[in-house]
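Lecture 7, part 2: worked example. A protein chain together with coenzyme A.
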Amino acid sequence: MAAGVQQEVAALVHAHVRRMGQIDPAAAASPTLADPQVRIGDRDLLAACAIRDLVFTEDSYEAMWGALHRHVLTVALAGPEADGAFEQALTRAVDLVVRRRVASSDRSISLTWPSMDPAGAGPLVRHGFAPLTVLGTVDLTSAEAGSCPVAPPERISQAGDEHVDQVLLLAEHLHQHESRLGALPHRPGTRTRLRNEMAAAIESSTQSVLIAMNGADVVGFVQAQPPQGAWIEKQVAANHAGYVSRLLVEPGARRRGVARALVDAAHGLLREQGAEVALVHYSAHNHPAASMWVRFGYRPVLTTWTRRLSPSQA
Ligand SMILES: CC(C)(COP(=O)(O)OP(=O)(O)OC[C@H]1O[C@@H](n2cnc3c(N)ncnc32)[C@H](O)[C@@H]1OP(=O)(O)O)[C@@H](O)C(=O)NCCC(=O)NCCS
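Predicted complex, written out as structure tokens:
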């Protein structure tokens, strides 16, 4: 990239972070825009978009979480004409992606955008994107501390090796639930990968898997990753962010406060590990889960919008 363009992009990223800081400080992390393919603005750069292609094989770990061929957009936006500049950048980026000759028919375009910024929604809806996933956050320093007692017969404890099989069944149930909602694909290797992942999380000295037991039965679980280890941490402008990554309560044990007790225990562990905020991902159209996270004090920070490309566009 020419030095002049590099400077313009750096100034745009700076203005973007400042604009986001006014809208939502938690969402004001710097976007990575090394060499954007789309640049909007005559005199000053008002918007820029980088398109990154990620390609995965069907048996890879990443394939569990989305399309095999992903076009990931990163946009920076500044200036008073923000809505118009966003629309122009998106139109150009989508056009570039759709016109590419790609053999795969399992393709998506996605963009993660601050949930609180109204400039994003209209253009994304007009271009056929759906808000699929939300990253929510809660401030653990001000959220109520202490553990919420779960009503008998359930009790909360740390999962051990002897619980791997039962936790795997719940993790599979959760994955199927998300697939049913259209948020995750179904892949042939999912069961094996989930088993390995849950067994490793239970054995781990840093991650935690907490379970709700009713007698010898595991009726719910939650997984928590401490700050510094949580991969998600750099997506938000927060220090010491822990990650609550999976939560499911068996249908027969629901609406009795089991999820509340599990999340409360996970928050307690994250606090002990130095977390100041906790993050969670949930599907935007998983309405019981969305109300639950709000009830637990979370609010949306980033929304991932996705458009599937139909085979005729592939
Ligand atoms: C979402 C889920 C974990 C809730 O578990 P639960 O033990 O029933 O939840 P709780 O009894 O602790 O309720 C906590 C809050 O969640 C909300 N909630 C839970 N289920 C709800 C429902 N069916 N409709 C509306 N709100 C609901 C309520 O706000 C509730 O608080 P309140 O009872 O004080 O009003 C459970 O329904 C589940 O496992 N669903 C499928 C998997 C899933 O969606 N997991 C979340 C992934 S991010």
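The chain has two domains: 3-134+306-313, 144-296. Residues 174, 177, 247-249, 254-260, 282, 286, 288-289, 291-292, 295 surround coenzyme A (CB under 6 Å). Keep this in mind for problem set question 3.
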